Amino acid sequence: MDVFEAISSRRSIRRYKSKKVGKKKLMRIIEAGRLAPSATNRQPWHFIVVTDPVIKKKLGESYPKDWFVSAPVIIVACADPSNAWVRADGEEYWKVDVAIAMQNMVLCAKEEGLGTCWIANFDEKIVKEVLGIPSGIRVVAMTPLGYPDEVKGKVHDRKPLEEILHFEHW
Ligand SMILES: Cc1cc2nc3c(=O)[nH]c(=O)nc-3n(C[C@H](O)[C@H](O)[C@H](O)COP(=O)(O)O)c2cc1C
Predict the structure, then answer these.
(1) Nearest atom (ligand 1) to Cα of 63
(2) How many C-beta atoms lie closer than 10 Å to residue 160's C-beta?
(3) Is the shortest distance between the CB of 121 and ligand 1 below 6 Å?
(4) How many angstroms separate the CA atoms of 13 and 17, rounded?
(5) CATH number for the domain harbouring residue 111
(6) Is residue 169 part of a domain?
(7) Which residue of 44, 76, 115, 160 has the fewest CB atoms within a 10 Å radius of its CB?
(8) Reduced to 3 states, what is the DSSP secondary structure of residue 138?
(9) What helix, strand, coil percent values describe the chain, rounded to 5?
(10) Burial classification of residue 146, based on how many CB atoms lie within 10 Å of its CB (0-12 exposed, 13-18 middle, 19 or more buried)
């Protein structure tokens, strides 16, 4: 699968089969995250892989949807803002860095035949408590990871180019 095929066929999956995700596939997906670019190459990310059903259930309290915990794996992408690049005007880039790593993993999962769904609408306090995440670390996003139990078409509902594309000036 080429990169464009992965981009255009990746969809948010909200139904998962219980079939386990093999270690080789899982580690390839994490490696895709590790290889992501980051501002001044600070790599301010940490990834937590959750497969233990008891921990997964507790983690589910941070985002109480049955399909979220039904996936065999949940990946939690965190940032260490104290180790991330900050622009001279104070703009922080840790969220951008971790989002790029996350999207690398999401696309790699697609290539591996696995489904994902970006999750941002979680209770960060609960995630940090359940997973023992240190206070200075931020949780940027989570995704369930598993074999899709729903079939979705290609990406289609996007704004038309003429609404978003500008040449030379706004
Ligand atoms: C940063 C971000 C946060 C998101 N948070 C959630 C979420 O909390 N829950 C959810 O069900 N989907 C979430 N999504 C998925 C979006 O709803 C989805 O990507 C969008 O509707 C487009 O659909 P598609 O991914 O199938 O192309 C999120 C996506 C992104 C990029």
Answers:
(1) 8
(2) 7
(3) yes
(4) 11
(5) 3.40.109.10
(6) no
(7) 160
(8) strand
(9) 40, 20, 40
(10) buried
Contacts of 77 (CB under 8 A, 6+ apart): 33, 45, 46, 47, 98, 101, 102, 105, 139, 140, 141, 142, 143
Structure tokens at 20: 């386990």
Shortest-distance atom of ligand 1 to CA 99: 1
For residue range 109-130, what is the model confidence (pLDDT) as tens digits?
999 999 999 999 999 999 999 9
The tokens for 7 are: 């981009």
Alpha-carbon Rg for the chain, nearest whole angstrom, is 17
Range of the domain at 121: 3-164
Our answer on whether the CB atom of 117 is closer than 6 Å to any ligand 1 atom is yes
Q: pLDDT tens for residues 58-105? A: 999 999 999 999 999 999 999 999 999 999 999 999 999 999 999 999
Q: Can you tell me which residue has the tokens 């990310």? A: 45
Asked, for residue 170, whether it belongs to a domain, the answer is no
Report residue 75 as tokens. 């990946």
